[in-house]
Design brief:
Elements: H1 3-17, E1 23-28, E2 30-33, E3 39-41, E4 45-59, E5 65-74, E6 95-97, E7 106-110, E8 113-114, E9 119-120, E10 123-128
Antiparallel strand pairs: 1-4, 1-6, 2-3, 4-5, 5-10, 7-10, 8-9
């Protein structure tokens, strides 16, 4: 097994082991804009995720410091919805709502990329205020 395969297997194991710690998160994918420029979203899909909630300042890869309200880690594969113009399976224009109703703009989407599958092993999403 390649190192990529080992990491993929480790993420799958982490997903199974932490299922009881994961909570349902509503993910509404951005799919378009209407004629008035307002965002159009797909029907929400509920995904299980690890949620670290709390107001924190974080430094993004580009050096900016942002204030976040939650870090959400999706350990399961998130399939792209196929809408034209999207940036990855989780696009910064998407909407994410936690089980308690907490939501906010997506400030950053990251995750170590799997070179064999051409997608992240897992997604880390930062929600802002």
């Amino acid at each position: 097994m390649s190192l990529a395969g080992t990491v993929r297997s480790a993420v799958a194991t982490a997903d199974k082991v932490t299922k009881s710690l994961q909570e349902p998160v509503a993910h509404s994918a951005w799919i378009d804009q209407n004629t008035f420029g307002k965002a159009v979203f797909a029907t929400a899909v509920y995904r299980k995720a690890m949620v670290e909630q709390g107001i924190k300042d974080r430094r993004l890869g580009d050096g900016r410091i942002v204030t976040t309200r939650a870090k959400i880690t999706f350990l399961e594969t998130v399939e792209p919805n196929g809408a034209e113009g999207r940036v990855g399976a989780i696009d910064p224009r998407d909407k994410i709502s936690l089980a308690d109703g907490t939501s906010g703009p997506i400030l950053d989407v990251g995750g170590l990329r799997d070179p064999e599958m051409l997608r992240p092993y897992l997604y880390e999403v930062l929600l802002g205020l």
